[in-house]
Amino acid sequence: MSLSSPGASLPEAPHAPKADVCLLMEGSYPYVAGGVSTWTHDLIRSHADLTFHVVALVADRGARRLAYELPPNVTGLTHVYLQDPPAGWRWQPGTARLVAALEAPLGRLQQGGGLAEVAEVLRLLAPRRGRVGKRALLNSEDAFQMVVRMCRAALPDASFLEYFWGSRALMSGLFATLLVPMPQAGVYHAVSTGYAGLFAARARLETGRPALLTEHGIYTNERRIEILMAEWLFEGGDTSLVLDRKKRDLRDLWLDTFASYSKACYDACDRIITLYGGNQEFQRRQGADPAKLMIVPNGIDYAGYSQVRRDPEPRPPTIALIGRVVPIKDVKTYIRAAAILREDIPGLKAMILGPLEEDPGYVEECRTIVAHLGLEQTVVFAGRVKLTDWLGRVDAIALTSVSEAQPLVILEAGASGVPTVATDVGSCAELLLGRPDEDPPLGPGGAVTPLASPLDTARELRALLLDRPWRERCAQAIARRVAQSYDKVAIDRIYRAIYDEHIAMPTRPTLEQPGFHPSGAA
Amino acid sequence: MAGIGFALRRLARRDDLLGVLQGYAHSAFITSGPWMFTILALAGITLFGRDLVEMEQLTQFRVVVIYNFCFSVVLTGPLVMVATRYLADAIYAKEVEAAPGMLLATLGLAYAIAGLTAGPFYPLFSGLPLPVMLGGLANFFLVCGIWVVSIFLSALKDYLAVTVAFGVGMAVGMAATLLLGDRHGAAGMVWGFSSGLAVIQFGLIARVLAEYPYPVGRLFDFLSYFRRYWDLALIGLFANAAVWTDKWIMWFAPEREIVSGAMTIYSAYDGAMFVAYLTTLPALTLFTVNIETRFFEHYQGFYRDIQKHATFDQIARNHRAIIAALLDSSRNLVILQGAVCAVCIFLAPMIVGAIGLQYQQIGMFRFGVLGAFFQVMFLFCTVILAYFDLRARNLTAQLVYLAANGGFTLLFSRLGFPWYGYGYFLGSLVAFAVAYLMVADAVRRLPYFAFVANNPSVR
């Protein structure tokens, strides 16, 4: 089966059959490989008896190749072209009135509005669906004059050129998301906020079916980083340090708009799921109802990994960093920690298990440090390996990343009885030390260290390598924790229960019907 | 997750807006330049040649020159417009290495056009004596060549070189025409005049090659522009045809002269119209100066400030400044041209007498002066349209002029002699009214056109 054709052969809404679950994917599955995409692919395959419709929110109509072969229970694939909404008619009566009516809710969506605004925009667009599109909403003179008025009202001192392109890009995405035909499904499941979340809000309002959200990373945070890093773009604005900014500028236009979409999504969804506790704080701060919040971590194949046997052959004490050799993993700190550790354990082996192709420059820098520190006999770049072959021969794992969400290696190593020393990022602390609500408390499965601290990393690794009872206590604790909370079989059952519950829910009044209430509660 | 990265990247690619500047419309002047040049050349020769050669010889010479000028300018019009745009873009992008190759290619194409049109026409249909016929053929190639070489100098804005080349060439041509005409009649005049044109053409070629000292290459790169700017090609064709269409129709009037073979002409009408058009010289000069100074400054400021992150209020201020500059200039132009026009209409009998036209031409001359008034105003409108790169509107305007000038002239030529010239006047008036409405509308909505309607990066 070729990887480029099957996607094209799947029906798009409204021609696709009604699915049990409609997954809303922004810039990921099935075209871009990565953590979220792999998770989604597994989710679909784990629920082979449910049918799925995938909505892929992508930039434009450019040709693209599937990164995943879609499982047979995917019954439809609808595309939303965020930068290229449907064209619609060029001339139609009432464009001026429509644009005038849209102005207020659109303006509020650019400054922290929410579900009520999305509902208002949908209500205005609904009677003209199929006819209204880019030509009337973005390219008409009425639309241009609206952009002018919005700019003068919200950011009178901003570069109009940037406001124009910025608001155009934002509105393109909004209209593309709101105008595409709606696939029919029992439950709508967004795998991020942003435009996928906006789509979930729309689905909830238009179909009356429940909506779910699983946030792996916090979308608005990621956008914030992206936008601040694109500072060179906003050269007309104030480029001084972020903390010093007082006036609202174009960056706020972007950030506030995405915050509005997130808020609309949180309000529309019945469940707001994330991988670990740290993310919930962000969700609460973005206005998510605490009653809807829920943690469902990613699971691993506990049964498989727990089969890994300790290699009885005599060997030197061995540590390993498992991951791609790229800056975000901070391999340099790991190498420096290995150098400190070797002072006490001369025969130490420090493995680096992971592909070397992604950032050859960084690999080269790492090798230089190895040579400088005289670690050629200690540090081994093993490249991509089959993890289960190695876990039996490793005494402790080190994870020095500067950023992680929920690293699966801690769980995979843990299931096979290998403790980990990890930096305090993402859910590492939760995985290694247990969630506050863990019952009964299982104890530490390793140790957590500050970022970029070779000394701390070396100290904790030394403790694991040299203090055998401590190492065994940690190994047991982490293995039990994985079995209890991170077994994929159990996680799949949790999602299955969530799906079953929501698919069985009665359809609530929609936007057009009496009894409708824009907040998620029926 | 690939979030808004693509949107931000797109935001960075926004320099298309400045592309409007490339729309830079010197090409528009090309439509008035050759026209004026034709009239001046003919006027000079007629003025001096009258007493030297017999009427029949002079008429033969005149018909060759008029045919060559009008058909060459129409036939090379598309080539000239598209090549001008290509060159202007290349100059804007500071990539003019292709210019020498392009010069040879455009010359080659112009000669090919000449060979394919005049090539069969002269031997088969002109019925001229062999020396005149061959001279006419050579003359046609030279005129075609001049039109395309002029592109390079007008894109360079090298007005001095153009003026010098034309001045020297016309002086040589005039002298040679009179000298040879005296001895060899029409053939001598045609060949003499051609020698002057040869001076112009080769002088300009030399000037261009000196300006672009690059190796010859990428000869036909600019041909890709024909697909992209097919509308410009049509503008080049229709604009020139529109200017000549009333003359062509009048060549079928009952009073026309059959000079030789298929070559007919109506000198009384042509002469009156040519002289009438000369009354626009002051306005043309004033307009060129105005465009080059005040308007262009505001025009550039408008787009430059947008690129430099102006607020909308600043953009609106610049917009108002453009409108004010245009209103100001057009008021001055209307007053100047109106005064010239009024004086010429009142003093028509005296003027006609003074320059040796016949008194029957007074009526045509008066209509001609009025028509020229609106024709030149129409020209100014299309120049503004070209500056804002509103090609669809420009093409529409040219088509309206072609249709109106042709249609009204046809209609009134049937009504008899007293109505001759009325069609040209009415056609120019209608075309001006249409073009004016299109310009006024576009200028009023300029920000919308700049950002959305006429912005190539907005799809």
UniProtKB/TrEMBL annotation, chain A:
Leader peptide range in chain numbering: none
Domain of life: Bacteria
Residue ranges of every copy of the DUF3492 domain listed in the record: 19-290
SUPFAM superfamilies noted in UniProt: UDP-Glycosyltransferase/glycogen phosphorylase
This protein's UniProt keywords: Plasmid, Transferase
GO molecular function: transferase activity
Keyword field contains Transferase: yes
Pfam families recorded: DUF3492, Glyco_trans_1_4
Name the UniProt record assigns to this protein: Glycosyl transferase, group 1
Organism from which the protein derives: Azospirillum humicireducens
From TrEMBL, chain B:
Pfam families: PelG
UniProt entry tagged with the keyword Transmembrane: yes
Chain ranges passing through the membrane: 21-45, 65-88, 100-122, 128-152, 159-180, 186-209, 229-251, 271-291, 333-359, 365-388, 419-439
UniProt keyword Oxidoreductase present: no
Domain of life: Bacteria
Keyword vocabulary terms for this entry: Membrane, Plasmid, Transmembrane, Transmembrane helix
Alphabetized InterPro entries for the sequence: PelG
Record's protein name: Exopolysaccharide Pel transporter PelG
